[in-house]
Amino acid sequence: MAIESCFVIMAIGEQKYDDFSISEDELRKRYDDLIKEAIIRARPGVEVVRVDEISSQGTITTDIVTRIMHSDFVVADVTYPNPNVFYELGLRHSCKQGTIIIKEKDGPKVPFDIAHLRYIEYENTPSGLKELSEKLKKYFIFYDKDPSRPDNHLLELAKLTKYKFPDYSEGPEIPKETEVMLSILQSPEIMSMLSKQQSGEEFDQSELMTALFSNPKIAEPFITAMVKSGEISFAPSPNRKERRKADSKKI
Q1: pLDDT (0 to 100) of residue 250
Q2: pLDDT category of residue 92 using cuts at 50, 70 and 90
Q3: Which of 28, 43, 178, 185 is deepest in the core (most CB within 10 A)?
Q4: String of b and e for 220-241 (b: at least 16 CB within 10 Å)?
Q5: Distance CA 72, CA 190 (A)
């Protein structure tokens, strides 16, 4: 059974906003001791990951976007009006359900643009941990019962208007020749041998084949292309088929 994943979106560096401020270390403790702990208590066995555990501070990388798109759940702490937090929350809302918004009870006022969204208020105390866990558990149960139900205004409007999102799941097939070249580019050793071949230098062909087939990722599209072109065939040759028929008649 696949492990469920929960990606946590929150401010990770020092935050200053009006009369509110919090250090990077304090935010880390809040994540480790309160938010992450509450999620695990509410959903035992779930994998919980925060943004700085997969990327450097201040960057929106492919790993982050992938987590936003594919995680089973996202918990977004909007206590501090951080641009990265709101951008990542918007990305999640545009592509998938399963988002839970949380906010510290005594933190800054929620910005107008998301003030209409449901969110859980929490207190950074031992009793607040217990209460946050219980509220998160209710949200998880809600998603379990109706996983396809929209949980934000964008998805609700998309469902109402039957908006058709771009579908990239069935993209154009990449030519096998392109796959072969892309895979070969991943191996400097093989590239060096092929460069020698193109320039007319002598090299051991067996070394090239050994290097090629020692890496499954490189060998797979290469073999597939050769099978497709007929250079490699696992079917019996016509002569072999005829010999089999002749042998069967003798018997």
Answers
A1: 52
A2: very high
A3: 43
A4: ebbbebeeeeeeeeeeeeeeee
A5: 40
Domain count, the chain: 2
DSSP 8-state symbol, 125: S
If you write DSSP's letter for every residue of 163-181 in order, what string do you get?
Answer: ------TTPPPPPHHHHHH
> Hey, which residues does 21 pair with through a beta bridge?
16
Place of tokens 């929620």: 110
CA dist list (Å): 84 to 9, 77, 121: 9, 11, 21
Q: Which of 105, 145, 128, 101 is nearest to 41 (CA)?
A: 128
C-alpha span between 114 and 248 (Å, rounded) = 79
34: pLDDT confidence band, cut at 50, 70 and 90?
Answer: very high
- Provide the 8-state DSSP code for 121: E
Distance CA 173, CA 170 (A): 8
Q: Note the pTM of the prediction, 2 decimals.
A: 0.66
90 with 210, same domain: the answer is no
Q: How many CB atoms lie within 10 A of CB 162?
A: 6
Task: Let me know if residue 35 belongs to a domain.
Answer: yes
Cβ neighbours for 242, distance < 8 A, ≥ 6 positions apart: none
- pLDDT cut 70: percent of the chain above it: 75
Same domain, 135 and 215: no
In angstroms, the CA 64 to CA 70 distance is: 10
d(CA 19, CA 14): 14
| Same-domain pairing of 46 and 71 | yes
**Burial class of residue 101 (count of CB atoms within 10 Å of its CB; 0-12, 13-18, 19+):** buried
Taking only the tens place, the pLDDT of each residue in 207-241 is 777 777 776 666 776 667 666 666 555 555 555 55
- Furthest C-alpha separation in the chain: 98
